[in-house]
Amino acid sequence: ILNVEQSPQSLHVQEGDSTNFTCSFPSSNFYALHWYRWETAKSPEALFVMTLNGDEKKKGRISATLNTKEGYSYLYIKGSQPEDSATYLCAPLGSARQLTFGSGTQLTVLP
Amino acid sequence: DARVTQTPRHKVTEMGQEVTMRCQPILGHNTVFWYRQTMMQGLELLAYFRNRAPLDDSGMPKDRFSAEMPDATLATLKIQPSEPRDSAVYFCASGIQGRGPTNEKLFFGSGTQLSVL
Question: What is the mean pLDDT of chain A?
Answer without folding.
Answer: 91
